[in-house]
Amino acid sequence: MTTTHEMIARQQPLETEFGYRSTAADVISGRDLAGRRAIVTGGYSGLGIETVRALATAGVSVTVPARRVEVAEAALEELPGVEVAAMDLGDLDSVAAFTAGVREAASSIDLVIDVAGIMATPFQLTPQGWESQFGTNHLGHFALVGGIADLLSEGARVVSYSSVGHYRSPVLFDDINFESATYDPWVAYGQAKTANALFAVGLDARAASRGIHAYSVHPGGIMTDLQRHMPTEELLQRGWVDAEGNPNPLFKTAAEGAATGLWAATAPELLDRGGVYCEDSSIKGVVADDHSDPATGGVKRWAIDADAADRLWDLSVAATGLDPFRDARSATLTVPA
User: Fold this and answer.
1) d(C-alpha 9, C-alpha 270), whole Å
2) How far is residue 4's CA from residue 167's CA, in Å, rounded to a whole number?
3) Residue 313 lies in a domain
4) Cα(233)–Cα(19) distance, rounded to whole angstroms?
5) What per-residue confidence (pLDDT) applies to 106?
6) Would you put residue 64 in left (φ > 0), alpha (ψ -120 to 50) or beta?
7) Bridge-partner residues for 84, per DSSP?
8) Residue 54: which CATH number?
9) Residue 276: what are its φ and ψ, rounded to 5°?
């Protein structure tokens, strides 16, 4: 199994020809992707639709799971080779129904890009009893990949959208549902984004022997539908918009925000860097636990910690009933009733 020491070694900085303002079209240009099949969550708005557009233009057949099927179909109708299927990422039963349909219809999957997510939401539980940000952003994607794991082709890649928001919190294994601590929507978001990064670590450790690799990415600051739960006053206070509602000019466009995920999905230089956290189509390295300036880039050690990834994997297996790429390690964990 991969160790934390190995993950830190893989996470050493890596510069590329791309950067902060590179777009989805830039990083995918020249890649031979014709004939491949992909699943992209959140693929009908924001970063997701830019990801789907770039893949479809490159000849990839894309399936977009969507809670609002008619909205997704309308948004994607002009893109070739794209289909929409019903799925609510926050409901594990709905995810199971979607993956069952994929198993019936597809012979193989080459790319899974997990873009969808929720941010800083009011406290609520998923139908299965998990805090909604953790349940949607992490467990929903774990169940999605677990449900189609046997279809992943040799050379397939899974890209898990994390965020610099992971700086806010490691996974709070002793109180994931905030039953003891007062619920803080940003801490809950940080926990979920750390879980997204750890999922890539755990998945790569288990799937690399089959030639399957996983990566997590921070797309950068972008104004999308993700901010829908934030009041205007908070957006102004954080400097994310001005008084007229215009986004901070330092933010990326959606096409720029989609670049790192597509780079992670296709870059040959990442073949020996499985499980790493990527940003600006590069690798920035590891930062100290008390580092608080997201502008410098980099990942917290707790988001690439192999032991935490194993513990999260075991929790996720218990929560979903799925055990993709079985591993000998296990832990005794409490799962909400």
Assistant:
1) 13
2) 18
3) yes
4) 31
5) 74
6) beta
7) 64
8) 3.40.50.720
9) -75, 160
Active site residues: 189
| pLDDT for residue 234 | 66
Cα separation of 211 and 221, whole Å? Answer: 32
**Residues 141 and 161 sit within 8 Å (Cβ to Cβ):** no
Low-confidence ranges of the chain (pLDDT < 70): 223-232, 234-246, 248-249, 327-337
- Spatial neighbors of 66 by CB under 8 A, at least 6 apart, are 43, 44, 72, 84, 85, 86, 87
Spatial neighbors of 133 by CB under 8 A, at least 6 apart, are 117, 118, 119, 121, 185, 188, 189, 191, 192
E strand spans, the chain = 37-41, 61-66, 82-86, 109-114, 152-161, 213-218, 277-279, 286-287, 299-300
Confirm if 251 and 240 have CB atoms less than 8 A apart: yes
Q: In this structure, are residues 59 and 82 in contact, taking their beta carbons and an 8 Å threshold? A: no
Residue that the structure tokens 């190995």 belong to = 6
SS3 at position 168 = helix
- Residues shown for the chain: 337
Q: Do the Cβ atoms of 90 and 140 come closer than 8 Å?
A: yes
How many folded domains does the chain comprise? 1
Q: Which domain holds residue 255?
A: 4-320
Token pair recorded at residue 140 = 């929903």
- Residue identified by tokens 């193989």 is 108
Query: Helix or strand or coil: residue 45?
Result: coil
pTM (2 d.p.): 0.91
- How far is it, in rounded angstroms, from Cα 192 to Cα 14? 26
Strand partners, 43: none
Q: How many CB atoms lie within 10 A of CB 295?
A: 7
* Residue 327 maps to a domain: no
Residue 336 is assigned to a structural domain of this protein: no
In a domain, 156, yes or no: yes
Residue that the structure tokens 């002793």 belong to = 174
